Amino acid sequence: MTQKLSVDINVEAGDWPETLQPLAEKVLGAALDNSGFEIDGPCEISVLLTNDAAQQALNREWRGKDKPTNVLSFPALDADDAIEGLLGDISLAYETLMREADELEKPFEHHFAHLLVHGMLHVLGYDHETEDEALAMEARETDIMGLLGYPDPYDGQVLLND
User: Fold this and answer.
1) If 0-12 CB within 10 Å is exposed, 13-18 middle and 19+ buried, where does residue 95 land?
2) How far is residue 12 CA from its own chain's centroid?
3) d(CA 36, CA 160)
4) Which residues lie below 8 Å from residue 66, measured CB to CB, with a gap of 6+?
5) pLDDT tens digits for 95-120?
6) What's the mean pLDDT when you consider all of the chain?
7) What is the SS3 assignment for the chain?
8) How many CB atoms lie within 10 A of CB 8?
9) Full-model pTM
């Protein structure tokens, strides 16, 4: 992990394993280091691990979608800002991640790692509103996951429910 990233993890709700903190730090560091952006100084990211009810409330308040979702990203930087300081916040919903990992027949750790990478890329400015954006973001995610030793997170499937 980059020495330039400080990760603050808050477990609000859900049965999140305690072992996720070092994994999250490693994954988020790799995502930052391999994002394609030049890092201008020390960075911070905040991660909220919560449950579906809290995630649904956040999704309703910030995106106008009254349903739980796997990951939400809240960038703190504008597009032209230097990549340093507080990058933003990422929130993940335990029940949704567990259900999706089961449906996809993937280990929870793999799905968790992928959604952290996905969330970090959103925080840094990646998006998937157009097909070209989606392809570029998915390729970057797949590369980062591969560098971490994980298989292709998409493997022919779309698993994000943005």
Assistant:
1) middle
2) 17
3) 22
4) 56, 59, 60
5) 999 999 999 999 999 999 999 999 99
6) 89
7) CCCCEEEEEEECCCCCCCCHHHHHHHHHHHHHHCCCCCEEEEEEEEEEEECHHHHHHHHHHHHCCCCCCCEEEEECCCCCCCEEEEEEEEEEEHHHHHHHHHHHCCCHHHHHHHHHHHHHHHHHCCCCCCHHHHHHHHHHHHHHHHHCCCCCCCCCCCCCCC
8) 11
9) 0.90
Q: Which amino acid is at 134?
A: A
For residues 67, 46, 141 and 68, what is the CA-based torsion angle, rounded to 10 degrees? Answer: -10
Lowest mean pLDDT among 16-20, 88-92, 140-144: 16-20
Closest CA to 162 of 102, 87, 98, 100: 100
Please list, in sequence order, all residues whose beta carbon lies within 8 angstroms of the beta carbon of residue 160, skipping any fewer than 6 positions away.
70, 71, 118, 128
